[in-house]
Design a protein that fits this description.
Elements (H helix, E strand, L loop, with lengths): L8 H15 L9 H33 L1 H5 L12 H18 L94 E2 L2 E2 L21
Antiparallel strand pairs: 1-2
Helix pairs in contact: 1-2
Length: 222
């Protein structure tokens, strides 16, 4: 995981997202079987490492909280404070539940919100208002942004692999460094969007569907 000893759970999660961003098989050309296999093996190792680190962190937390009950065992009151284990499980549940409970964020208003470095992969943000939002370095693999308002949003280095951006409003959005490989941009409006530095295209568009999209220069992609 390329972490220093004693790394926090937050640092483990951030390292995991960074490595998945680099080694996800969807970023490798399908016809390169050697690199595809290498990416799959690497992703498997990353997932195993993350699970081991998370389980160690959980064990460390439980052992850290266990001494108080042992000191109070002579009294009967030890049975009451001994309830922290269920309380300690709640944080892990709350960290896992929000993605499920909040996976449907369609129509939500996130205009001007700071969502930089967030993991929104797989979320439903169809028709959401993200105008002017900061989405730099955000991981949005397979996110549903159909019909969403992303006008003037900052998508610098955002990962939008296989994202659904049909009919999305990307007018004047910053797409420099964004990865839109395999994304569906049919009918999207990219008028005035920043995708180049001089003559150099700085957006990854491998396998992107641009049929009917309005390009930054106002032309319609055929």
């Amino acid at each position: 995981m390329e972490l220093e000893p004693g790394a926090t759970l937050e640092e483990v999660n951030q390292a995991y997202k960074d490595l998945v961003f680099v080694w996800h098989p969807d970023r490798i050309p399908k016809d390169n079987l050697r690199l595809q296999q290498k990416a799959q093996d690497k992703l498997k190792a990353i997932n195993e490492a993350r699970e081991k680190l998370r389980s160690l962190k959980t064990k460390h937390q439980t052992t850290h909280h266990s001494p108080p009950p042992q000191q109070e065992k002579p009294s009967q009151t030890t049975q009451k404070p001994y309830s922290p284990p269920p309380q300690q499980e709640k944080p892990s549940q709350t960290t896992q539940k929000p993605p499920k409970q909040n996976s449907d964020l369609s129509g939500k208003d996130y205009s001007r919100a700071n969502l930089s470095n967030k993991d929104l992969s797989g979320r439903n943000l169809s028709y959401a208002n993200l105008s002017g939002a900061n989405l730099s370095d955000t991981f949005m693999h397979k996110v549903n942004l159909r019909g969403a308002n992303l006008s003037e949003a900052n998508l610098f280095r955002a990962n939008l692999l296989l994202a659904d951006l049909r009919e999305a409003n990307l007018r004047a959005a910053n797409l420099i460094g964004a990865d839109l490989s395999g994304a569906d941009l049919r009918g999207a409006d990219l008028t005035g969007a920043r995708i180049r530095s001089g003559e150099r295209l700085l957006v990854k568009l491998v396998g992107t569907n641009l049929a009917g999209a309005i390009m930054p220069d106002g032309s319609i992609f055929q």
